[in-house]
Amino acid sequence: MLLIMAPACTAKSDARLFVLFLCLTIHTGIAVATIQGYIGDIDMTCPSVCRCDEDFIYCNDRGLSSIPSLPPSASVLYLQNNHINNPGLPTSLERQLSVRVVYLYDNELDEFPIHLPPSVRELHLQDNNIRTIPRSTLARMPLLEKLHLDDNSISTVSIEDQAFADNPRLRLLFLSRNHLSSIPSGLPASLEELRLDDNRISTIPTHAFRGLNSLRCLVLDGNLLANQRIADDTFSRLSNLTELSLVRNSLQTPPVNLPSAHLQRLSLQENALTHMPRGSLDGMHRLQRLDLSGNNLTTLPRGLFKDLDSLGQLLVRGNPWHCGCNLRWLYDWLRARGNTITVRGLTCHGPDRVRDMALIDLGSEMEECEVVRLTGNKDKGAVGGGESSTTNAPPQGSLFTLRSKRPGFGFPDSGLDYTLSSSGVGKSLALNVKPLSHNSIRVTWSAAQPSSSFRLSWLRQGTGNAMESITETLVRGDRQEYLLTSLQPRSSYIICMVPLSVTSESKVAMSGDADTDESLVCAKAETSDLSSIEEEDNEESQHITVLPLAGIIGGATATVSLALIFGVFCWYGHRTGHLCSRDHYTRSSSRKSKTYDDYIESGTKKDNTILEIRGPGFQMTPMPACQPMQPKPLREDYIIHTIFPSNGTGVYKGSNHVSNAGHGTNRGYREGGIPDIDYCYT
After folding, report:
1. How many CB atoms lie within 10 A of CB 186?
2. Which CDD domains match (predicted)?
3. What was the pLDDT predicted at 570?
4. Residue ranges of the alpha helices (H) in 196-293?
């Protein structure tokens, strides 16, 4: 029986052991899985100082000085508005291969940050103090497409040569509000948008935008650009440009050879535009927005907008528009466009008859121009042509040179025997020119008959018989003077003028030429040398400065002489005793006999409590008071009197004690039979 039961017990024990082993195995697996899950949770934990939304990590505005540990799945890092500096970027950041966008603007970075992940495609570093752009650092981010470096301290020389050569995907580069003095070199050909506004760029050479055939947006606002410092074919290379902004510069005309094929937005506001040359907007069939606000334009030439088929916005506010018959073509063009175009700021500044009126509202006034053109009656000049203005300053000459194979009228042949003088007289016009400075000439004229306008042309004579390009402009008929500026020093200019009637203007507009040789009047003037002008100015300034200097020396001499005479007079008076300051007082020991009150002179209320003597003291009187027969001494000699209080309790003081009392003349009362002894002291 016992032998039968033993095998059964052994079998049960084995079963229990197997079950126990199985349970231990299951528990061990669960523990391992739990530990692994906990470790995985630790790896995916969001930093305690940040907020995470899937792969977006928000650590901005936390006052951080360094970047905390980030989960490996992070793709967009918001780290702006902190105190992160260059040492605050850990080397572990390079292993965050999921990061695509990094916002590090408004921090305390002094150098271009290193240790950024190579997977970054968009980097925001504006509002720091970055000074250099090294090529080696940018080479670590070959996938970079957008780089924002606005509001830093980057200069042209601090950008390493070929700094962007290893960034073939870079499409957007912002360098606004830095210290650039020229266009950075070595820009990648993949660039589509370039912003360089509010820098110190003054010159743009021909090769500045070479190779940037993909560039579509170029912003150069707030620089120091002028027409003379922009190469003629600078912008013509940008064949795919759709937006060009040149706001807040010093342009007097639009740059020549602007890209016209794809341009959609052109911003030229807040410059010094005085003239829009005919043909400067030719070929811009896709232009949608044109901004000419804040300039000095008074008119626009006929045919300026002939190719602007897609123009939807025309912004021209802030210009002194003269709404005469010269703008009749623009009035007709706007009426033909109707509601397809939005115009802002085309308000008349003159003549007074239509001041503050919109051009589009001048229907009846513009009809007058049509009547004059058809009937050929007496020309009305401009709208309200009877109101001539001769007090206005002469308009400034344009810097733009109109190059044409056949100008409106010919100039006299420089090879002829006769020579032109500073004045010319024709059948209907008398012309006079006068150089004012090394770069300006004043032109005045007098017409025998009223004219709607005058065509003024001038050109500079080159070496020998060579002639340069012709510059011409239309002048209103109510003017009698014009100022040519920005001319070349020490140069000869031929200046011609011809009066135009309304009919002749129409011919010129239609055919580009007119038979005006009979009315043509020309004169010649020569600008002075810049050095001679400076010498004359220096001589005049020397003459001007010599006169005040002589006056100052003479005045100083007279003042010193008067002071010496007055001093001698006072000294003599002091010797004779007539001007001594003490003579303001009468020579008396009694206070009642004093005729001048020093308290009243100083504006101070007299305090009589000083007369209530409560202890022994002294009184000082001038020496002549006690010895009138002696001559007045040269030194200040005084007599010291002992003063006792009225109750007789004072003690007599010895004569060796000197008091610093003022000039008071009152005595105290002395009682008790003590003799009054005067002690003279100097």
Report:
1. 13
2. FN3
3. 79
4. none
Amino acid 425 reads: V
Write out the two tokens for 311. Answer: 């123009």
Which of these ranges, 114-118, 315-319, 442-446, has the smallest mean pLDDT?
A: 442-446
One-character DSSP codes across 40-75? HHHHTPPPTTSEEETTEEE-TTS--SSPPP--TT--
pLDDT confidence bin for 579, thresholds 50/70/90: very low
Token couple for 230: 């922009």
pLDDT at res. 420? 58
For 424-471, how does the pLDDT look when each residue is reduced to its tens digit (9 = 90+)? 677 778 888 888 887 888 899 888 778 778 888 888 876 544 455 678
Is the pTM value of this prediction over 0.90?
A: no
Longest dimension (CA), the chain: 172
Instruction: State the amino acid at position 195 in one-letter form.
Output: R
Contact 431, 443 (CB under 8 A): yes
Residue 568: the pLDDT is: 83
User: How far apart are the C-alpha atoms of 99 and 54, rounded to whole Å?
Assistant: 13
Pair 559, 635: CB distance under 8 Å: no
* φ, ψ dihedrals at 625, nearest 5°: -65, -30
Residues 161, 139: contact at Cβ < 8 Å?
Answer: no
Which domains are delineated in the chain? Answer: 46-179 (3.80.10.10), 221-231+243-365 (3.80.10.10), 423-501+520-527 (2.60.40.10)
